[in-house]
Amino acid sequence: MNAEETPAGETPAGERRALFLERGSYRRRRLMDAARILPVAGAILLILPLLWHSGGAESGPGPATDAIYVFAVWVLLIAGAAILSRYLTVPRAEPPRAREP
Amino acid sequence: MPFNLLLAIALVYVAALFLIAFLADRRAQRGQGRWLSSPLVYTLSLSVYCTAWTFYGAVGYAARSGLEYLTIYLGPTLVFAGWWLILRKLVRVGRTQRITSIADLISSRYGKSTLLGVMVTLLAVLGTTPYIALQLQSVALSLGVFALPGTTGWVAADPTATGLWVAAGLAAFTILFGTRNLDANERHPGVVMAIAVEAVVKLVALIALGIFVVWGIGGGLSQTLARIDAAAHPGWELAGGRWAGLTFTSAAAILCLPRMFQVMVVENADEAHLAIAGWAFPLYLMLISLFVLPIAAMGLERLPDGANPDLFVLTLPLAEGQGALATLAFLGGFSSATSMVIVAAIALSTMVSNHIVMPLYLARRPAGATMSGDVRAAVLRARRLSIAGVLLLGYLYYRMSGGSEALASIGLISFVGVAQVLPALMGGLFWRGATRTGAAAGLGIGFAVWVYALFLPSFGPEGLISAGVLADGPAGLHWLRPQALFGIVGLDPVIHALVWSMLLNVGVFCVVSLASFPSPLERLQGAQMVNVFERTLGARGWSHGSAEAEDLLTMAQRILGPSEARALFAEEARSQGKADGLPDTTPEFLGRLERELSGSVGAATAHAMVAQITGSAAVQVEDLLRVADEAQQIMEYSSRLEAQSDELRRTAKALRESNAKLTAISAQKDAFLSQISHELRTPMTSIRAFSEILRDHGLTVGERERYAGIVHDEAIRLTRLLDDLLDLSVLENAQVSLNLAEVRLVDLIDRAVDAASAVPGATRVEVRRDRDAEAVSLVTDADRLTQVFINLIGNAYKYCDAASPVLSVEVVADAETIRADVIDNGPGIPPGARDIVFEKFSRLGEPGAAGGAGLGLAICREIAHRLGGRIAYLPEREGGAFRVMLPRGLTRPNDDAAGGGRAVSGAR
Fold first, then answer.
1. In this structure, are B558 and B679 located in the same domain?
2. What per-residue confidence (pLDDT) applies to B891?
3. CB–CB contact B35 A78 (8 Å)
């Protein structure tokens, strides 16, 4: 996995990994960490409703509240993924695609 | 809503899809239409995940189990939100290795294993067939809903006929757009475009219905929420095991489902699209599932108790009198069903033809370099037959199962089945220690548990597994009850099967992988895939040169098509620096060709086909090492032999040369001996004869004086001859003492010309000299050097027979040496005699003709050597030309005697 942490996502053979990075690269590494943490955090948040109902069938809020909570987490996940993918793909700096008329 | 109108709308819709697919294919072929492969189209094509199960089934699922339907979408959401973790690697591997299907990926990763390819293919077929049946059923059911209110028509009477027609139509579409070309990268722009359009239709349909339900008849958001709470009934509570287990299952399924792999990896045109899809696809899933619960709640409230909740999406708007909305919903459901079937059929047919049909086809043909028949046509035929076969299987399953079960349960069973591929897939991508044996064992046991604990019981108590076995286990083995393995009772059957199959699968996979040892090809492939971001390795062990480019081209033409194959070969030849002709079959080229071919027929088959031609199936690294080792030894040995034989050849040549020289010298010696005898005998004879005459009396004084003179002359001649011989002997034996003094060369040459003028014929020769050039001084033995010039000039006088003989003396001097050339315009020395001209006793022409014994040049050579210089014949000059090279300052006589002539000296 370590090789994935360089900005381009690839390590040229023979290049040694630096121990300390300049600020930009450091930021990028942490973004990649965030991208890895995001699904785990999402999974934990989505398990939470089970705890509300651990007291029995009638305990906890109704299904509507559950649904609102789940969809809220969902929106957060989407927003998080959108922000992360926006920053993670920045250095690719691809030229804008030619549009079809 | 008249049924016939609905049918007409459906047919128009299908025709529109055909047109879209056709136009997209054409644009893509012309290289236009970049928008065909935009992130938007990519994301929409992923919606093939949302089948009729989603469209109709999710509402039914929600009506029965509340929020649990969300698990089916939350799993993929987590996987896509974490695209950086898994999907990025999956897509990269798929693109770099030209993977054509999930079975191809597993087979390729584990050393191009045919066994694993077949296993995954079978699992996929078994898991997908019920799913296809489900789609056919949904279309038949939905049409039935419209036909129900007493409309006449064949559909209501025979839903199975509807299924057959739908299956046939889908087969036609899939064959038409899924196997039009055997593209190396296996993309289907037409199909993808049609699916993207269908994705929009189903999203719009569900959202429109949702808006109608919430704001049209539901009275707004808060009332809808209240309605949902009111609709809650036993069964709606969240069950922890199912919630987590099904989320995991759906997350695994999106990675392992053949159709998802097809759209996600194979049809991916640009890895950057994945980053967009990472949030856009979860958004799509969220929008699709947003109104499911309100629709279910409204359906439960408004529709009669017996109504099938799986059809709420249609029956609710129909009951509310919204014919147009119902039609839109029907089109949405129809889209969901058809897009799933089309992509699944393409994915499955690729797998079946690459991993089952083509290996059998290749195994049945005789091995050999020439491939008779057309493999390309065979592959296409296999694809088409596979598509038809897959749809037929789906239809048969639909007929068999009778369309009775709840839609959702089939979907979950299918998901758990394909999830069995997950350990081998993840292990293959992230763990280099994963081996083929481990993958096969894990997959096998997971597959077996799934079939036994979930798939077979799904046919019901009177289906493929008897009620007795279900209740008491096979042969009374209580702990082997299919739905309570090892005595674990009370788990939900799906979760039960999931837990046991995944536990055993992962466990066996890990243990067997740890215990087994991978083959070299496996290790190579494993390294390539696990380290795909670090580097992309080149060739995969093709030994060089054994394959014939022509045979490979023939084969490639049959698979890739003639023009594509020729373009590929021409490009390779260019990159190898060849202007025309076929490329060399380098390992790099073979590796590249194999990757190209694997795009059409899969990695294992491509490897087998190239191996068939190169005749080097399964090259082991050890073999290569051994071969290299042997080659090394052979090369060393032969180079030693070569060196030896070179030396022998040189020695033999030197021996031959010296032998020839010796023979010549020996002949010379014999000739001289006979000549010297003659030379000595002639004066001796005349001396004896004239002394006898002198001894007699009666001679006049004049006669006596004349005869005594003759005797004297002859004696002098003898003495001179003997002097020469003695001189040479002394010189050769280095007994001479040199009188070194500084002299001027011009003086020596003057003396030599004077002395030589006594030679007969000297007067007629014109001597050309450059006295200025000759005016150089040197330290040498004047008498000896003069002798050299006398001999050279005398020879010129004697042997130059030109009409107007010219002798020129040319002197060139520098700080160190003096070069004096004595050149005449005579015939020179014939090539054959040049080697021996400096040998003793050599004289050209008739013996005695020039009045010498043939010692002159030999003496010259000895003197020049003693004086630190040398003398040489100049063959490149016209006429006889000799060059004397001398040092300007001789400090010490050269003591070692000149080589050659020893044997002759000894014969004296």
1. no
2. 63
3. no
Q: Which domain holds residue B637?
A: 622-715
Strands B870-873 and B806-813: unpaired
B538 confidence band (pLDDT: 50, 70, 90): very low
Query: What pLDDT does B423 receive?
Result: 92
Q: How far apart are CA B747 and CA B730, in angstroms?
A: 26
From B601, B619, B637, give the residue that closes a domain. Answer: B619
Highest mean pLDDT among B173-182, B285-294, B566-575, B886-895: B285-294
Closest-CA distance of chain A to residue B289, Å? 10
Residue numbers of B between 239 and 258 with CB closer than 8 Å to A = 240, 243-244, 247
Mutation site, B36, B77, B225, B529, interface A, largest A CB count within 10 A: B77
- How far does A100 lie from chain B, in Å, by closest CA? 7
Q: In chain A, which residues have their Cβ closer than 8 Å to the Cβ of B81?
A: 38-39, 42, 77-78, 80-81
More confident residue, B533 or B860: B860
Same domain, B12 and B107: yes
Instruction: Specify if B138 maps to a domain.
Output: yes
Q: Which of B238, B243, B292, B431 to mutate to test the interface with A (most CBs of A within 10 A)?
A: B238
How distant is the Cα of A26 from the closest Cα of chain B, in angstroms? 17
Mean pLDDT of B480-490: 69
Place of tokens 């799934």: B450
Minimum Cα–Cα distance from A9: chain B residue = B533
Co-location of B674 and B634 in the same domain: yes
- pLDDT for A14 equals 40
Asked if B327 and B246 count as a contact pair (C-beta separation under 8 A), the reply is no
ipTM higher than the 0.95 cut: no
Same domain as B339, residue B254: yes
pLDDT at position B710:
83
Nearest to A9, CA basis, from B102, B536, B251 = B536
Q: A61-91: string of b/e by CB count within 10 Å (b at 16+)?
A: eebbebbebbeebbeebbebbbebbeebbee
Q: Which helix (H) or strand (E) covers residue B649, if one does? A: helix B621-695
CATH code, domain with B71:
1.20.1730.10
Domain tally for chain B? Answer: 4
H helices of B212-271, in order, are 221-231, 240-256, 258-261
B56 lies in a domain?
A: yes
Please give the residue that has the higher pLDDT: either B713 or B155: B713
**What whole-number percentage of chain B has pLDDT above 90?**
6
B742 by DSSP, 3-state: which? strand
Residues B255 and B216 in one domain: yes
State the pLDDT at residue A12.
44
CB B899 within 8 A of CB B840: no
The angle, 0 to 180 degrees and rounded to 10, between the axes of the packed helices B407-418 and B58-65 is 100
Site from B30, B534, B535, B537 to mutate, A interface, most A CB atoms within 10 angstroms: B534
Q: What is the CATH number of the domain that holds B773?
A: 3.30.565.10
| Same domain (yes/no): B391, B406 | yes
B708-716: average pLDDT: 84
Asked if residue B197 is part of any domain, the answer here is: yes
Which tens digits make up the pLDDT trace of A46-73? 888 777 776 665 666 777 888 888 899 9
Q: What are phi and psi of B813, to 5 degrees?
A: -130, 140
**Partner residue opposite B272 with nearest CB, options A42, A81, A94:** A94
Tell me whether residues A85 and B286 touch, CB distance under 8 A.
Answer: no
Is the confidence at residue B578, as pLDDT, over 80?
no
Find the mean pLDDT for residues B582-601. Answer: 75
Same domain? B626 vs B615: no
CB contact under 8 A, A78 and B290: no
- CA B225 remoteness from chain centre: 63
Q: What is the pLDDT of residue B286?
A: 92
The answer to whether residues B657 and B788 belong to one domain is: no
